[in-house]
Amino acid sequence: MMRPKPEVLVIGAGVSGLTTALLLAKNNLRVRIWTRDALLRTTSCAAGALWGPYLVSDQRVLPWATQTRLELERLAVRDRSCGVRVVYGHEAARTAAPPPGWATELPGFRTSRPDELPAGFTTGWWYRAPIVDMPTYLRYLYDRFTDCGGKLDQRAVGSLAEAVAEAPVVVNCAGYDARNLVPDASLRPTRGQIVVVDDPGIEEFFAEHDESEEPTYILPQHDHGRVVLGGSVEPGRTDRVPDERISTAIRRRCAEVMPALRDARVVEVRVGLRPTRSRVRLERTAVDGGHVIHNYGHGGGGVTLSWGCAHDVLSLINAI
């Protein structure tokens, strides 16, 4: 028996695609996902992932991020199997810098005492924020999506016209692949690499307040006895083969902040391509008589913006 055609087709099964598809399915739409990559091979699976807004010059970012944070906090309380935890931790800068406005509104916010700052850091602040174990969370979103009747097909998409022929509404969450699919020459790859190690007893996260190509962050995944160490920001690089030189540098920087990590056993190295754009593209366009809603270009903020953007997608569909 042939399956009925979907009312909405979502392209991509990273955190943006899965979150959007789940929200639409929960709102009684018949939804299918097409994804080229297996669930745990998406860029989202290589994210750290500590909630935190970026590119806040875009006035949409803070509302999207806040809506997402509140949803992640609810999930952390409601379902301990989802891979989300709210963790207390420290953000610090090597030069004098005020805390971002959004940080001052988070639970547990306070400025750092001088004796709390790691060597080489000048200012800092503490707060509680969601940390997401991405492999667990992606599987959680997928399971909730299928519980709502959603379907996923692992298949590549040749064009938006091909997708519109499958469903009257298409949501483009293709990440960096949107560069060729749309096409959108303004979308650029930014390679990122993280190292996952055994947890030597890290209780708090650490995140460097930094826009350089070598940000330092330490994110404990308490449920799995692992710690995610990061990171790297490599504009224009597109390979996804782990780079031992980068892994060594990440481990060195993190051990300088928390010496207990120096001899931690490496479990795995993950690499992903952030879909970088000057602004997130979230809008509706017409293609071959159908509706395409673009939801891509989140850069390193896919997790942080996921639920807020998904709700805007739902609003655009409801307005059709």
Describe the fold and architecture:
This protein is of the alpha/beta class. The chain folds into two domains: 1-83 and 133-187 and 277-320, NAD(P)-binding Rossmann-like Domain (Rossmann fold); 87-129 and 189-275, 2-Layer Sandwich (D-Amino Acid Oxidase, Chain A, domain 2), CATH 3.30.9. It is 28% helix and 28% strand. The protein has helices at residues 15-26, 61-78, 101-104, 134-147, 160-164, 178-181, 244-257, 302-318, and strands spanning 8-11, 31-35, 84-93, 110-111, 123-132, 151-154, 169-172, 188-198, 205-208, 217-221, 226-230, 234-235, 266-276, 281-287, 290-296. Strands 3, 4, 5, 8, 9, 10, 11, 12 and 13 form a nine-stranded mixed sheet that branches. A six-stranded mixed sheet has the order 6-2-1-7-15-14. α1 runs parallel beside α4 (134-147), α1 (15-26) packs parallel to α8 and α2 (61-78) packs across α8 (302-318). The protein is globular, with a radius of gyration of 20 Å. The two termini are 30 Å apart. The mean pLDDT is 95.
What's the SSE blueprint?
Layout: E1 8-11, H1 15-26, E2 31-35, H2 61-78, E3 84-93, H3 101-104, E4 110-111, E5 123-132, H4 134-147, E6 151-154, H5 160-164, E7 169-172, H6 178-181, E8 188-198, E9 205-208, E10 217-221, E11 226-230, E12 234-235, H7 244-257, E13 266-276, E14 281-287, E15 290-296, H8 302-318
Parallel strand pairs: 1-2, 1-7, 2-6, 3-9, 7-15
Antiparallel strand pairs: 3-5, 4-5, 8-11, 8-12, 8-13, 9-10, 10-11, 14-15
Helix pairs in contact: 1-4, 1-8, 2-8
